[in-house]
Structures are given as C-alpha cells and as structure tokens.
Amino acid sequence: MSEPNETEGADAGRRGVLGAVVTTAAVVAAGAAGCAQPATPAAPRDAAAAPPRALGRTGAQVDAVSLGGEGILRTTGRHREAVPVILEALRLGVRYCDTAPAYQQSQDYYGEAFKAAGPKAREQVFLASKTHARDRDGALRLLDDSLRRLGTDHLDLWQLHDLRELDELDAIFGKRGAIEAVEQARADGRVRHVGITGHHDPQILVEAMRRYPVDTVLCAINPADPARLPFLTTVVPEARRRGVGVIGMKVMAAGRLLHDRAASAGDLIRYAASHADTVIIGCSSIAEVRENLGARSLPYPMPPDERAALEARIAPRAGRYDSFKA
C-alpha cells in the first residue's frame, strides 16, 4: 500500500525547472562525509522565511515546506546519498520530517542521520511515520520496528496510511483493529498524535475523521485537484472545522507538473501551502533540499486570483496529474 515515489520518475523535469543539481559524485562524497562525521552546525534560519504555522491542535509549529520521506529516501541500499539529504534538511532547520515503513529504507536513513547529527537532532523535529497494517497486532509490530529503525522512543505523529476503502475503515475501527494499537501506543508514550493519510478517495478521509478524533490528515493538494474527486472542497474544510492539522502531498503530481512545465515549483508549493499547514516534498539531492526549503521564504498565502488562474491553466490536462485518485 505504498504511495508512488514522487521524484524518482521525474528527476529530469525537476532539474530543468529547479536549476542545477549536485552531481552523483558530489552527493556520494557528501554522503561519505556526512555518515562518518558529525553534521555541519545548523545554519541560521532564513530571516525572510514566513512565520511558522500551527499544525492543527497538536501544538507543533511547522513551516510551509517540510521534508518528505520519498525521493532518494524511498530506496534501498543508497545510504551514502540519502543520509546527507536528511542532514542538510536538519542543518537548514527543517521542523517536520515524514517517513513510513512502506518507503523501503527511508526510516533507516533517518535513524542514521539523527545519529550522525548528534543527540539533540531527533528532538528538534516533529517526526511522523505511518502504519499500513489494519489490525492491532500488525500495527504494533510495525510501530516497534519503526522506533527501532528511527532510533527513537516515540513518534510525534503516527498515521494510518493510505486509506482507500470503507472496509479498511471497518477493519481499523473494529475489534482488534489498528485503532486499538493507536490507543495503546498513545497511552504508553510511544505515540503522541495520530493522523490519517490518503490520496485515493476524499470521502474515505472525511468518513475517517467522523469516526475518530484524529489530529492530522495528509492528503493530495495541487492545482489539478478541483477537476475531479477534490480534496480541497471536502477533506480540507472538514479538517478545519474539526481543528485537524492539514498536511499536503502530491504537490507536484509525482513530478509531472514540472516535467510538462505546467507550473513552476515555487508556484506549486505556494498553491499547496496556501491550503495546508505544511507540505511534504521528497528530495533526490542536497540541491533539491535547498531549493525546496528555500521556498519557505516565498510570500504566503498565494492570492485567490492567482490560485484560480493556476487551476484554470491546468484543468484541461488535469487527468494527467491526478492519476493517483480513484
């Protein structure tokens, strides 16, 4: 039940739009240094960055842009390239980090990065992972494995991953369902907050919010959304009404919007972050980390007329950019 890797298939388009990318040799060299030595001291936060936002009722403060768990992080055996990507995000003051058991070795890379960055690095971020298990015992096994791989004793956010069908909700909220794991893990301190994720059917996420008081919802947000099965007019307002934090994904439609030059990365980030508390973006290089986290200093929110113009421009080909929906 893993989600598509948003950057693996679109590196060429991203390079053309975002600018120069570090060469593979440079990344590998950085990886060797990053894994063997303590991380570079944290860079001062950009004074031009927009003020942090509240992540729903969690009490956490997040930036418009956060580090996703995909891109180079959704790989196996590429520690020398992946760990430096996380270290650079930590150096630049990232506040929220995303990962999942389904993302290959993503959690292992985070664990290595936190260890390399020093004892305080883990506590400086709001760390989110997920469970794709729908039963209590399976979810608890995944949670303990996540904690081990991440090198931490708790998650700030544990999310029920990739909800698609009503029968999944019935299993999760039924006897010995995953929600029992959530309750147990919150009671014993392994998990602080609970969330849901999905990009398939917005009504499933709405129904999940009705069944349980989740703290966050992670959903697809990009300018193609209004054309079909929209999350922006269903999930987002329901979340706001309930005080649920909103996290955006699929911001660049698995890279297709960039590949087609349908919009700039900056405009896509501004669009999504105008609806969400934060947006998560997977990165394939240190250069992409710098580009994406640099978008924290863009003007927010994007004015309504600019958002409408972007939607209208993309609408004729919206089907190309929402293929992850039902």
List the helices and strands and how they pair.
Elements: H1 11-18, H2 24-36, E1 53-54, E2 61-62, E3 65-71, H3 79-91, E4 96-98, H4 106-117, E5 126-131, H5 136-150, E6 155-160, H6 166-172, H7 178-188, E7 191-198, H8 202-211, E8 216-220, H9 235-242, E9 245-249, H10 256-259, H11 265-273, E10 278-283, H12 286-294, H13 304-314, H14 318-321
Parallel strand pairs: 3-10, 4-5, 5-6, 6-7, 7-8, 8-9, 9-10
Antiparallel strand pairs: 1-2
Helix pairs in contact: 2-3, 3-4, 3-12, 4-5, 5-7, 8-9
How far the N terminus sits from the C terminus, by CA atoms, comes to 14 Å
Residue ranges: pLDDT <50 for 5 or more in a row?
Answer: 6-40
**3D shape:** globular
Number of strands: 10
Q: Could you report the average pLDDT, rounded to the nearest whole number?
A: 89
By secondary-structure content and strand pairing, the structural class works out as alpha/beta
Provide a count of the helices.
14
Radius of gyration: 18 Å
Strand content: 15-25%
Helix content: 40-55%
H and E string: HHEEEHEHEHEHHEHEHEHHEHHH
Report on the biggest sheet.
Answer: 8 strands, parallel
Q: Main sheet: which strands, in order across?
A: 3-10-9-8-7-6-5-4
Structure description:
The structure is a single chain. β4 (96-98), α4 and β5 form a beta-alpha-beta unit. It is built from 14 helices and ten strands. The model is unreliable at 6-40 (pLDDT under 50). The longest helix has 15 residues, at 136-150. α3 (79-91) runs parallel beside α12 (286-294), α5 (136-150) crosses α7 and α8 packs parallel to α9 (235-242). The chain has an eight-stranded parallel sheet. The protein has a two-stranded antiparallel sheet with strand order 1-2. The chain is globular and about 50 Å long. With 326 residues, it is an alpha/beta fold.
